[in-house]
Description:
Layout: H1 2-23, H2 42-53, E1 59-62, E2 67-70, E3 79-81, H3 85-99, E4 103-104, H4 107-111, H5 116-123, E5 127-131, E6 134-137, H6 146-154, E7 159-160, H7 162-169, E8 179-184, E9 197-202, H8 205-208, E10 211-216, E11 219-224, H9 226-235, H10 237-240, H11 242-254, H12 260-269, H13 273-283
Parallel strand pairs: 8-9
Antiparallel strand pairs: 1-2, 2-3, 4-6, 5-6, 7-8, 10-11
Helix pairs in contact: 7-9, 9-11, 9-12
Amino acid sequence: MAAxxxxxxxxxxxxxxxxxxxxxxxxxxxxPVRRASHPDEPATIARNCERAMKPPSPCRVDALAGRIQNVxxxxxxxxxxxxxxxASDKVxxxxxxxxxxxxxxxxxxxxxIPRTYLRRLCERGLLDRVDRGLYRLANARVTELSTLAxxxxxxxxxxIGLLSALQVHGMTSEAPHAVWVLIDRHARTPKSVxxxxxxxxxxxxxxxxxxxxxRIDGVNVHxxxxxxxxxxxxxxxxxxxxxxxxxxxxxxxxxxMGSIDALVEAARADRVYALLRPYLEALT
Length: 284
């Protein structure tokens, strides 16, 4: 009985709430139902053409988040992540630096470029990691002398000599398995470099005499002259072999790589003139 009473009261309350609507109370205006337009109707076609003729919606750049967000009437939720302008300038500066030759990680500090950009450009395929801390452009032209440029970049105080210098001067037909360099007697031993290094030490005139500079892959490569290379082969004959030194002397004379005076002067700088003189007299 009580439940029936509650149902009745609820029904009366509902009737009271709906009475203004059903009775057409004053001030009530029913909301018109908007009929969905058909895409083939003339009005719909005209409206779509008008929207297509409008210019693209403006875009807003969020500099803090590094994003571009479309705020126009279409594709409101589309967000494109872009690189900030300062980052793109640093990438362009790094590419220009790599076009000049191999790049060391320490070279980026002077240019104000974070070292993390090297890893990012390697992941994008724009740079190749040649060795530890050494990078070059992915599409850079690589020759048989490119390793000399890499070594000169990694070890700037080294002088290319002996078998590597013979190869550059065309005084041997054999390709050395490593890059031969001369460094100061008290200089720090270079770390592992790819390809390998064969290090010999010298000091005074034996190190400073007869050095020329060649431009290889955009890098200034310091190497011994042909005359100094022959003298070094006799000085370091225990490293390269006496037969290699004699063959280098024969090529120097037959190909006229330099004068006899330059060869004698280089031999005296290396203190091997007494050893070189019998071979020189026998071949001239």
